[in-house]
């Protein structure tokens, strides 16, 4: 008997392209919404077919994607996601038929529908659903970062090893980039099986083995052109006691507290002369005192060629800036310099992840080829002798040169000084007129949710980050970070969103996640669209003044009301309370709020320029490019 596929509220939200709160509202507002058929009171499960029929009948969805329907039906038959995906891989690769006969026609139909990409396309679609379901157990290297690691490893036509390959994503990217043969190993047998199936389904050359790479290296005699890995971090029991005399420790036995340096030497041990290793590591590997002797030897012998600190945005699963370590087994006399790069410094003024990664690739590749980086604004060549102190701390920010190389500090300072003088003159003139005191009682309030129910505004979004939807390459995308920093829409090209919502004059956007309540009024609509994880409140100006709404959203009481009880970082703008007063009075409030907004904006510009002037002056004096005048 075929079991019925079940879905959670989170699944329904992803299928419909809405937030979980929307699904919760549907359950409350519609008596016809299907009743739970399983799960618990806090995490109920619903019959997928019933939910699909309800969403189509109520115009919430045209149809459930066939891949979702199949995946849920598959999990109803095989509850372990990794095993379920492996069974699909075996069927698609012809190894053995899917053991659930009733699902075979659906799987074959999916492959037929995708035409040329057939089996490969279906496997990738289902792999994406598996990754969403795997949770924290499965750490995935973001695809753009994996591509950069492969490019830095320069594997064209060569062989590559990933000793902690997980599902084989990095190896898959390498094979697509032209690697002649890929090898992988992972301690999780289920993931290793998936990695092998992924290569087989996609007809890519490769061999994957299950096992602990540090304790039981499955390829002990193998040397390759490149090793690329995102190894596990912070392991306390990685085998240090039993591996003390291992031949791989060319630079010293890693202390028990330095598992990352064990992975570094494991990777290096598999390199051919001239081969490169690119590893994604935590920042502690560059500075922990216990590893200083190994780091020093890596530098002296010319094995470590570059350390790049990455922006947080490139690895959102971590709360620290991860680093790329680039190693190379010397085929000639070791070089006396190493490249240290702080790409985290590019995060604030660079438009997208692709641009950051492109600049990293260019700087590191040029240094490896010529010994000189192309972008001194964040990458700097450091003599190895300067790093061999008591700490051997390779954290890039610790070695950034004083001042900003390549910048005309005197000219920059003159420009900032002039702008500051102009704004300083304008600031007193923009000081707003204060409202007068009043004795009246506070007016009654109404929630944003109730305003929406009454037609005074629309609530759109938030668009969730599901990894699905279309890439947006033709218009800018307003991101949550843009809203927090007050920047113009910066997203695009690498933004994948499920729904396009063009921004209009008078719209108010509120980030779903922020350290405090942040709201921004759109006054220059242009062509930007709403990004992920943003609420959009669209007031009806005939009954609700936008500036009035914006001003009252930002009050301290609303900051408390809209913050999540479980996390101080999540904002629910729908809970905000807004005074219920006539539109004419709203507009008078709006004039006050707009005046305060303009004055605050000007004051922030003055503060920012003052900080720039202080920084540039200090850097100029420190580097000798400025000197005091007689008037100083």
From TrEMBL:
Alphabetical UniProt keywords: Methyltransferase, Transferase
Residue ranges constituting the DNA methylase adenine-specific domain according to the UniProt record: 122-400
InterPro entries: DNA_methylase_A-5, SAM-dependent_MTases_sf, Type-I_RE_MTase_Subunit, WH-like_DNA-bd_sf
Family annotation (Pfam families): N6_Mtase
Domain of life: Bacteria
Keyword Membrane: no
Name of the protein in its database record: Type I restriction-modification system DNA methylase subunit
Transferase in keyword set: yes
Higher taxonomy: Bacteria, Bacillati, Actinomycetota, Actinomycetes, Micromonosporales
GO molecular function, one term: N-methyltransferase activity
One example of a Gene Ontology biological process annotation: methylation
């Amino acid at each position: 008997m075929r079991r019925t596929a079940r879905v959670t509220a989170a699944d329904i939200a992803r299928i419909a392209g809405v937030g979980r709160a929307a699904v919760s509202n549907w359950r409350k507002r519609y008596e016809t919404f299907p009743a739970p058929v399983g799960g618990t009171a806090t995490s109920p499960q619903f019959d997928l077919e019933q939910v699909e029929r309800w969403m189509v009948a109520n115009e919430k969805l045209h149809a459930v994607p066939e891949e979702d329907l199949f995946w849920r039906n598959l999990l109803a038959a095989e509850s372990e996601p990794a095993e379920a995906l492996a069974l699909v891989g075996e069927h698609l690769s012809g190894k053995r038929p899917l053991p659930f006969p009733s699902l075979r026609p659906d799987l074959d139909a999916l492959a037929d529908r995708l035409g040329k990409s057939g089996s490969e396309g279906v496997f990738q679609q289902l792999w994406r659903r598996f990754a969403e379901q795997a949770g924290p157990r499965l750490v995935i290297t973001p695809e753009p970062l994996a591509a950069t690691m492969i490019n830095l490893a320069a594997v064209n036509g060569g062989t590559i090893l990933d000793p902690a390959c997980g599902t084989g994503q990095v190896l898959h990217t390498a094979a697509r980039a032209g690697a002649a043969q890929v090898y992988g190993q992972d301690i999780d047998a289920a993931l290793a099986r998936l990695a092998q199936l992924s290569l087989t389904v996609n007809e890519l050359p490769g061999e994957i083995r299950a096992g602990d790479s540090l304790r039981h290296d499955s390829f002990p005699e193998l040397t390759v052109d490149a090793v690329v890995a995102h190894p596990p971090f912070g392991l306390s029991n990685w085998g240090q006691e039993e591996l003390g005399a291992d031949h791989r420790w060319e630079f010293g036995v890693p202390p028990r507290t330095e598992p990352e340096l064990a992975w570094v030497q494991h990777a290096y041990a598999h390199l051919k002369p001239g081969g490169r290793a690119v590893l994604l590591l935590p920042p502690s590997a560059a500075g922990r005192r216990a590893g200083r002797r190994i780091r020093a030897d890596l530098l002296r012998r010319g094995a470590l060629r570059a350390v790049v600190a990455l922006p947080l945005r490139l690895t959102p699963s971590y709360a620290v800036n991860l680093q790329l370590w680039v190693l190379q087994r010397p085929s000639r006399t070791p070089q006396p310099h190493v490249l240290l790069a702080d790409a985290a410094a590019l995060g604030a003024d660079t438009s997208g992840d692709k641009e950051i990664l492109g600049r990293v690739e260019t700087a590191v590749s040029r240094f490896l080829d010529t010994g000189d980086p192309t972008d001194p604004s964040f990458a700097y060549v450091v003599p190895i002798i300067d790093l061999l102190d008591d700490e051997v701390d390779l954290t890039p920010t610790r070695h950034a040169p004083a001042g900003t190389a390549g910048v005309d500090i005197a000219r920059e300072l003159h420009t900032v000084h002039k702008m500051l003088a102009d704004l300083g003159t304008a600031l007193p003139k923009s000081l707003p007129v204060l409202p007068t005191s009043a004795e009246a009682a506070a007016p009654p309030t109404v929630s944003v949710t109730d305003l929406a129910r009454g037609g005074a505004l629309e609530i759109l979004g938030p668009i969730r980050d599901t990894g699905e939807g279309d890439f947006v390459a033709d218009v800018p995308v307003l991101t949550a970070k843009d809203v927090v920093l007050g920047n113009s829409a910066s997203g695009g090209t690498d933004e994948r969103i499920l729904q396009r919502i063009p921004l209009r004059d008078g719209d108010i956007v509120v980030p779903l996640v922020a350290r405090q309540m942040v709201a921004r009024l759109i006054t220059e609509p242009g062509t930007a669209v709403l990004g992920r994880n943003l609420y959009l409140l669209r007031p009806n100006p005939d009954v609700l003044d936008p500036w009035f709404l914006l001003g009252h959203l930002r009050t301290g009481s609303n900051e408390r009301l809209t913050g999540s009880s479980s996390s101080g970082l999540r904002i629910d703008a729908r809970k905000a309370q807004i005074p219920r007063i006539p539109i004419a009075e709203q507009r008078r409030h709006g004039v006050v709020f707009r005046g305060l907004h303009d004055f605050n904006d000007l004051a922030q510009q003055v503060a920012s320029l003052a900080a720039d002037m202080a920084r540039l002056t200090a850097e100029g004096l420190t580097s000798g490019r400025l000197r005091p005048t007689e008037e100083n």
